[in-house]
Amino acid sequence: MKKNKILHVITGLGDGGAEATLVRLCLADKKNEHIVISLMDSGKYGQYLKDNYVTVEVLNMPKGKVTLKGIIKLYKDIKRIAPDVVQTWMYHADLIGGVTARILGIKNINWGVHHSDLTPANSKKSTIFIAKICSYLSYFIPKNIIFCADSAARVHRKIGYSKRKIKIIYNGYDIKLFDRNNNYSASVKKEFHISEGTILLGMVSRFHPFKDHENLIKALGFLKRKGYSFKCILAGAGMLPGNKSLENWIRCSNVEDEVLLIGSRNDIPRIMNGIDIHLLSSSSEAFPNVLNEAMACGTPCVTTNVGDAAVIVGKTGWVTNAMDPINFSKLIEEAIDEMTLNSKLWEKRCLASRVRIIENYTVQLMKEKYVSVWLDELV
């Protein structure tokens, strides 16, 4: 039986949530042929996709710029591939990939939106401008507009995106990769020379204004002043000694002895299992992947109320307003107190965290929903 060709056009293949979701989707769907075109370079995931037999083409456009050479190559690539379905990812790809595919006569075009905050404080002017252009084109270019979060859909309805084309498909996660493993707790603490009884907090996130690490570090400072003893590892791109902003915040909050900057890691499931509580301090998100990954490992979360974070966590964790380090700190206290004073309730919370992901946010469920949207248009 001939496989359908699914062409993905994405802005880039760097270290981001949408990019990781694309990779999981391509590898999970064995019944269709997946081809990926990156408007920029191969980034973090290009070679990984190739190693897993997914064809990857790159246009090598500079970040934030569109080149005539890139547009011509995109046109030729789409024409040569002759896909049954075009799935675009993020605004630039929605616009450029969507319009190019439509010019070539392709009708089964599906946009992918992974952004939920278009306020000037949290989005570039160019991003807001392109989103508004896409809102007008949403009535003519795509068959469907797939949002990864309810919050993202609400924001884009307000700026004029076609309501009848909206589909919501939550990101899905590999629950075999992100599984509970109590042995990792000891090994992670040993790696970072942390004594076994120490409470280990953590946040996995690249360094970016949206992630609001200043909020996190202020909260940790308040926690220390209350007399709590803990360590906190911060993992992700840019989370390394030498980051002047981070080092200044850490020094001002007097948590130099508590915070460990460990940078990018290729063992995130181990890290998620190794920490006792995962923290997310973001001021803006759509569908925070790290909450799902931590919860799948049975690690409860304390998070700011951004995007779909509260929906993801449900009753398994704690949710506070963004940019409120005092209350953030209080909720971390609550989590630590429960963990140290009520082990039975804590274990129930750990189990409930994983069950919530298994029931709602698996990669298998995500794949089935995407395929249903794609192939419905081919019937």
UniProtKB/TrEMBL annotation:
Chain ranges of the Glycosyl transferase family domain: 190-342
Domain of life: Bacteria
Keyword Coiled coil: no
Transferase recorded as keyword: yes
Species the sequence originates in: Vibrio toranzoniae
Record-level Gene Ontology MF annotations: glycosyltransferase activity
Keywords assigned: Transferase
GO annotation terms (biological process): carbohydrate derivative metabolic process
Stored Gene3D superfamilies: Glycogen Phosphorylase B (3.40.50.2000)
Regions crossing the membrane: none
Domain Glycosyltransferase subfamily 4-like N-terminal: 16-175
Name of the molecule in the record: Glycosyl transferase family 1
